[in-house]
Amino acid sequence: MFMTIEPVPHVVIVGAGFGGLMAAKALAHTPVRITLIDRRNHHLFQPLLYQVATAGLAPAQIAAPIRAVFRHQKNATVLLGEVTSVDLDRQEIVAEHKREPFDYLVIATGAHHSYFGRDDWAPFAPGLKSLEDAIEIRRRILLAFEFAETEEDPAERHRLMTFVVVGAGPTGVEMAGAIAEIARRTLRDEFRNFDPGEARVVLADAGSRVLPSFPEALSRDAQRRLEKLGVEVHLNAAATACSDEGVVIGQTEIAARTVIWAAGVAASPAARWLGADADRAGRVKVGPDLSVAGHANVFVIGDTASASDAQGRPLPGLAPVAKQQGAHVARVIAARVARRPVPKPFVYTSFGNLATIGRKAAVIDFGRLRLTGFAAWLLWCVAHIFFLIGFRNRITVALDWSWAYLNFSHGSRLIIGSTHWPPAQGTPAATVRPMPPRHTVSS
Amino acid sequence: MFMTIEPVPHVVIVGAGFGGLMAAKALAHTPVRITLIDRRNHHLFQPLLYQVATAGLAPAQIAAPIRAVFRHQKNATVLLGEVTSVDLDRQEIVAEHKREPFDYLVIATGAHHSYFGRDDWAPFAPGLKSLEDAIEIRRRILLAFEFAETEEDPAERHRLMTFVVVGAGPTGVEMAGAIAEIARRTLRDEFRNFDPGEARVVLADAGSRVLPSFPEALSRDAQRRLEKLGVEVHLNAAATACSDEGVVIGQTEIAARTVIWAAGVAASPAARWLGADADRAGRVKVGPDLSVAGHANVFVIGDTASASDAQGRPLPGLAPVAKQQGAHVARVIAARVARRPVPKPFVYTSFGNLATIGRKAAVIDFGRLRLTGFAAWLLWCVAHIFFLIGFRNRITVALDWSWAYLNFSHGSRLIIGSTHWPPAQGTPAATVRPMPPRHTVSS
Asked: What value of ipTM does the predicted structure carry?
């Protein structure tokens, strides 16, 4: 008697952020073969990216090589590559001339910043999505102080010492608070020719309050704390112009050499790859099991998906959402593979909304329970450590971050790369070295 | 009665490596004003740079912002800037259109790698002198493994898995040993489609033994340990060709995508700035008090100086030499300022020569006493921690590095920047963003 042995189903997961990583880990004990593909070699703990950008933590402390995370998970293969399209007819993903067939596909490719149609502002107002972004923002902030030390023209020094953050969601609030703190505390004793404490930090938003996704009382609390840290908060002030001289927000012109963009988010091209329905921000509309209409084996999760809660409201682009969706998709796939009934539709369980203001305060919205101040900040720290997905042993990370906090992490205040303004557009960067063209195998 | 108050003498120190940093710190209690200028914002602990290049430590662990080192030293001002010439007539240094007058000048600008006239090899065989160098080498090494995971052509995979280090001095020996170790140990479980342990690591030198500045018995011991780690040692094999396909060393052609240059050193342009006598490597010849002939107030120390020991032999380009010279120059300046007799001529006290092979062995030459193996490696660690110049609290660094060692420092294995071969020469790098031209004040 002959037995047909079915091959193990192949699950391809695109993106190793919170959503993709969680899905891959949650399938560790399911009889599937997993290929996890990301265009970078590391998983990034994004909630703390602003710390790298403001020279508070080093990149190594908030990123882990994806391979290290999966070294012991034998059903997972990690690949470095950039997916450029999905061939739904042939059931394959396409990445840089290589094709990978799948039985199940999970797209978790996240979001990037949007300049609301003004992409020409990008060179003057970098956003914060990747480690490279954070290192570049850090470089500009630290260079501004360095240049101020030798600048003799008071007007230019004032421009160098003015920092504008556009967008008062959690990222913008956290960035602005952190910049105010390094200026007024960390760098205080390190300059002789001027006082870094006199830096001007501006936080601007088109809306009427900071942290618009939080309850009003917490928005007011956060604004108060920001102002106590010396941040100027400008509300009802959309950015209307941006150049190397500064910004215009609302009616106000602000001369500044450093502008940081924390204002808009747009989804990855996943909707285009799938030819699927998308919302206004480009996020793929998914069903109750997070799959795409007409393709029950194709799932989209995280910031690049548009899913709704029980009341039909769109879910926010938060890390816990992506993480829970990743776990849910893994349960759905496992049920299908085992020919068990499919789980109930996805329901997001909110553990609250958190944002820090400086090193000693936070605001936390748990719905009925709200917390602010130092207690909130401690809880924020604990929550983030708890939230790690096998990033490293949680104990080691807890010790690592505590260490960095106590030490003021001097090692993070490095300017790596050019100590000059980058070359004008079109000029090759001085440090690029050509390498051999990669030998490509056509498929 | 009128008193003329003489202004405090101004000591300008160019370069914040071991020599410059030591000189500045040693003048903390001398009634002088110090300006320490470096073209980077951080002091680099160079003996461990190879660890960053081989993804064993993170940049933040071996570099400190210069300002942080001097935050409490009130007579020291730190400036970021690149010195381009010295005006001995006007007694000023020139840095990017700004001039700084000095009463005493200490030049400690170090060395860079030399390709013995074949600068066209530089793009294919990066050297290791700065953090940027180390991060680039790390990127290439890690990318080679990433590409091997998806490479279907066995010949290309073999090329990707072949690493050649040219130059078997301490830097080359340490690099080769570390690459062999990450391939055979750290990365072992992280790839599914090939075995990183089969990487081929080649160490080549034109001379007849590794570590030529060590006694012969230690050279043999080091070579034995390298071979035990799986490093192929090719001696009497000078590099005669280098391209993106590999190298030719001696008569042997080796196909390799990653070549690292650890073979030649050339001094900074200091000799040219001063119009001073220099040796064949461009190092400035200095007198017994480390000053330049005809300019008793201009000192040159460290790798960019050519000083001799009691037997007239040139001193090696080692960190302890620079450190002791920095301390000596500070004593000379302090004596002159106080109108005391000048100290005796500089004498270098050697504490031995050290090199590690992998994570558990080292060779140490103390002259009469020699040590090899694990005990030597422990002593090497202790010596390096002891050797820190107020880098950070020695205890914190000791704990930090022990931590990294025990944890295999996964966070250091990040590929930051392009995950593609860099663009061909002449093409702008994709990630460069233009910034406003710096407002320059003409002097």
From this structure: 0.86
